[in-house]
Amino acid sequence: MPTSYPDGIDSFTVPSLPAETPLSSAGSGQLNHVESHRDIGDAVTALQTYASKKTHDHDGGDGGVKLSQANTHEDADTDSSLTAIHHTLGTGEFQAAAGNHTHNYNNLPGIPYGICTSTSRPGMPTTGMMIYETDTQCFRQWALYDNNVAVSGVDSIVDFNTADNDSIGGSGWATTVYDSGDTSHGVMATPAGTLTWVDGGGANSNAAVAWRTDADDKETDSDDQIITWETGSLVIERTPPLYTTAFNDFYFRVSSDRQSYVKLSVGDGIINAWYTTSGRGGETLLGSLSNVNTALANTQWRASLIERTLSIYQTGLLVGSIVDNRLVSMKGANYRGWGVGMTAPINLLGQTTPADINYVRIADEQYYTSVNRWTLLPIGKVPEVQLSQTVKQKLTSTGTYLNFNKEIVDNFGFFNAASSNSGVVFKEPGRFYIDAAMQWNPQVTPDIANVALVVNGTASMYQNATFMRGNSYAPGFSQTLAVSGPMRFAINDILQVRVSYTAPADLGSQIFSWFDGDSNTTSRLSITYLGP
């Protein structure tokens, strides 16, 4: 019978007694000798026909079929992981990319440059990456530049706009009355939009302090405190001979029980600093500044207690410093309160009154740190400010901040006349070139004129002074006093231009800045961004 291979398997049995079995007989087997040779031959022929050679390579060229991909592994790992042997083409996590594939540039990791908007900046940029913001037209770089961020802590301004004839209007204060302790003998109140002393009359001295209690600003974040205030139109009353001066009092590092503090007292021509650890009765003098002109209306004052030094500034210029060399003033988290007060002693006709206060501002001393941030680059759109005066401004000899009422250019919103017409608030950190010029009245001029660039209430090194020959001398043209230079600013730094002069007393009410529209002669301020 023919072979059953490859559909089946042939069986070749042999006789159990081959020596006794004739060749023509199958004996106990299935095939006789001839049939056995025939069928074995058929099987060999079938093997030669269907079996692959030892050297076969699955290409189908030797009569066998080609090896299909599906049969190469028992468990295919196609697209199963990053280390899989086989990958199909596609966009999946473990698929392979086509040879003609393309990339979206903004989706590439670690790109050095990107295009976005000011609200869609890359979330995890690499250091050095640059971007262009299509909505602001600004170029920025993610990088760390020295002192590019100001840390300011508490910074709060308190106006006295709530009218109250008997106390400070509104909330946020706890008032203590000293000396007579009787509010009928005078009281610190806000009857007309300023903090003022309401004279009680009679031969009674009195004093009061308002401790700040508002949760948002009753304490500073650090030991280094700054109190800024502006006097009102009513200045401190001159002290009659043989009598005691009135004082405007400002309290630093007040303890939670109000028994420990440093007190700055601004009197008529004198400034005193006191400390105590046992309340008002234990106040001890730390130091004094004498011969100071304190009777100045609508004037900004600033006092900073940094470490152990209490420094006093008037419109940006340092008046003097009082140092706690004995290290008696307290420091620490329990000594960060503050307050404002007034002292009204008796005089011939009643009480000597302190100056009115338009506002008071409490702040931590600002310090700088360096962080990675989207820093503005000096290409594309950069900050530019140009301001000028179109009205004449009355100037005081002790110092006046120039007011600007015309905004020529301010493409980053640094200047807001509704908030302050003298201060420029920097919204971008970096180095800027400042150019300021003051125009003086051509007919009435001071003897000596001064101009200074003031940052955060402190005069910078950029100052200029000149001899102008005033009094009976009229130059006939507006003299210019300019000051300029490169300066570094942090975010929210405030720049002002301070003008002061020396002149005879009879000219004090006649000194003005000058404006002439026909000749474009005007006081001005220009700010240009230089770079990070």
UniProtKB/TrEMBL annotation:
Residues 1-33, 53-79 are annotated as: Disordered. Residues 130-368 form the DUF7257 domain. Signal peptide: none annotated. It comes from the Bacteria. InterPro entries: DUF7257 (IPR055681). Residues 22-33 have a biased composition (Polar residues). Pfam families: DUF7257. This is DUF7257 domain-containing protein.
